[in-house]
Each structure stands twice: as structure tokens, then as C-alpha cells.
Amino acid sequence: MDSYQLVDCGDGSKLESLGGYVVTRQASQAFWPPGKKPWPAADAVHHRSTKGGGHWEFNKSMPSETAIAWGDLTFKIKLTEFGHIGLFPEQQDNWSWIRERVTQGYKDVLNLFGYTGGSSLAAASAGGHVTHVDASKGVVSWARENADLNDLSKAPIRWLIDDVLKFVAREQRRGSLYDAVVLDPPSYGRGNRGETFRIEQDLVPLLESLKTILRPRHFVCLSCHTPGFSPQVMTRLAKMMDGIADNQIEAGEMLVPESNSRLALPSGAFARWTTR
User: Fold this and answer.
1) Average pLDDT of the chain?
2) What is the CATH number for 139?
3) Structure confidence at residue 265 (pLDDT)
């Protein structure tokens, strides 16, 4: 099966190979000159709109969707108006970390803002029992298709279309408990009934609420793509949530490696930790 590759990045863009098709998308953090010039003509180029969203300019006929491999998972790729493709390759190291923790006995995993399901598939493939929550019906359906592609259609995954804040509040009232939580909150998001999530005002209360639905022995994998949320910010959020020592928190940049290079494209930050 064809796979994903980051071919090059620079001048605010990234050049990617998606199953043999070449596309360019925005990458504002890549302000340096590209390493490989000239770039080959892209089959599709995403243009961002000042009003939000954007559109794709096609220079070659492409299928509306295809399946490609990244790591040991397979994803359905679709070019959305926002420039997303359904795959977040920078999460691969987090997925490996989640798998390892699940095999250590942290079985009941809650994945919030689950989007197209990479973390849910990683946990389920290691034997986890997953609750996948996202407010968008369309992306939950997409995640279920990804489960099918990875022979995980019968895995113990609950697929829930729900507002994350309301779901967690209900779980508190029910007295539900989990062994782990994985979350990659957006800078701004809308719930299925018009609810809003703003990371600067809603993330800290959400993390406080999550403490009440986690068992004493648990793991957390928190990641973020919002500018300004550095590894140090993520470390402070981890300490606020669990009151653990600095040396128990692993934090850093999420990276997408360039093909045939030792360089990588920074794509957000993470903090992850395990209580014992």
C-alpha cells in the first residue's frame, strides 16, 4: 500500500506525497527556505481563505478519497476545505507511547476530540477498550471507516458524537472511571448543538474535570497545535492537572520527519505522563 511522506517544507508550505499524489498545504511554522528547489508541480494545492476554510486547486485529476499507510496504521485520505487530509503524522510517536501503556494494563481509554481516530486505533490495536468522542458526525464516521481499514471494526470502541465538555460532565455525575485519557483539543471548536470550545478559557476547567473520572493509576497524553502552547506550557498544564514531579512528565515538540533527511517539521507540542 502507498504511504505518506513529507517531501520538503519551507516558505510557509509543505510538500507531501499522499499515496503517489503530490500536494502542497500551508505550514506557517516553516518560514525557512525550502531545502529542495525547485519543487515538482503539485497535483493539488490548498489555498486558505481569510474567512476560514479554503479550497483546493487541482492540477491533475485525483480520487476523492484513497487509503494510505503511516507507521503500521492505514488511513482514509480525503482533501477537506480546511486543508486537512484525515491524517496527523506528527502523532505517530504518541500512538506508540499509548500502545505501550495499554499493554501495561491501562485498558479503559477515553479519547476526546478524537477526530479521525488515530489514537483510538492505536489503543484498540493494543487491546484497549476505547471511548472515542467527537462533536462532528462526519469525522466520527470517518474514524469508523479507518477502524474498518485496520481490521478493528469489531474492536471494543464506543463511537460517540457529543460535545466533549458536556460528555465529561455527564461522566462525572455517573461516577464513570477510566485508566487513561488522550486529548488533542482544538484552538476553537463547535459542538453538535452550537456549543463552543475555546482553548484558552476551556482547557484548564476540562483538565480539572478529568481528574475526577480517572482512576488513581492512569496515563494522560495531551497534545495541541495552537500557537503559543509550547512544551513548557504543556508541562505546566500537566503539573496543574496531576500535581506530579517534573521528572514524571515527558514533553516536547511533535515532529513530522522529512523523507531522506534528518530534518523534521515541528507540528505542535505534547505532554504525557503516567501515575503509579
Assistant:
1) 94
2) 3.40.50.150
3) 97
